[in-house]
Here is the input.
Amino acid sequence: MSVKLNTRQVGDVTVIDVSGRITLGEGSSALRDALRELTAKGNKKILLNLSEVSYIDSSGIGELVSGFTSVANLGGTLKLLGLTKRVKDLLQITKLYTVFDVHEEEAHAIRSFA
Amino acid sequence: MDSAEQALIDQEYSSTLESVDQAEASILEAAGQAGFDEDEQHRIGMALRECMVNAVVHGNRYNKNKKVHVRVLRSSERFTIQITDQGEGFEIQEVPDPLDETNLLRHSGRGLFLMGAFMDDVKVRKVQPSGTEVTLVRNVGPRD
Here is the structure.
C-alpha cells in the first residue's frame, strides 16, 4: 500500500491525515508536494497525523525534517500526531523525537497551536 | 561462504525502486522462514531497504545497465545479507554522522546509520572493477 493523504481544516490548523507507507518514491514525494502546496498557500499551522502510517524509511524521515524546517522558516509550525511504535522508535534512534512537537491526542495537539 | 551456511537468496536486480520493493518482500519472507519474529523481520527488512536504495540510487544511479546483486545466507548463528552494486563506491569515513547536532536536520544521510541500528554488524568494502559490497549481519537469537 502506497501513501494516502487527506487534508482537512480544524480552526486555523491544517491537519494532514497520512496513511500507508512513506518511502522513497511516490510516498515521500506525495508528502513533499502536499507540504509545499500548503506552505505556498500560507498555511503556517500544520499537524501531520501519522497514526495510520505503517512504515517510514529514511527518505520519509527526510521529508518530515524538510517539512519541519520549511514551515519553521516561514514562521510557522509543523507538529506530529499519533506516532505508531515503529515510527516513534525510528524518530528516537535518529534523535529527532525531541526535535518535533509530538502529540497523542488531536484535540490536545490542536490546542497547542494557540 | 561458511560450509554450514545455506544460501536463501541469490538474485540480481535491476536498478529501480521496484527492485527495492521486490528485494524487501523476498527478505521478509526469508527472515520469517529463518525464525525471526515480526518486529525483527521489520528491522531486517528496513536495513535491506536502506541498503538497496543506496545501491540503486547512489551506487548505480538508476543505470539500467547496472545490477544489484543480493545474497542472503543463513547459518545456525547468523543471518547474512550481501548487497553489491556496480557504482563508483564511496568512502565510509566521509559519511557524516546523522546524530551530530549539526546534521540532525539534514534531509538525507541516515541510511547507513539505520542499517547499523537494526543489524548486529555492517561491513562495507569496495569490489573490483567497480562497486560496493555491503554485508549486513543479524545474529540468530535475542539481541543484546
Notes: Chain B has one domain: 6-139. Chain B touches chain A at residues 17, 20, 42, 46, 49-50, 53, 57, 98-99, 104-108, 110-111, 113-114, 117 (CB under 8 Å). The domain at 6-139 of chain B is CATH 3.30.565.10 (Heat Shock Protein 90).
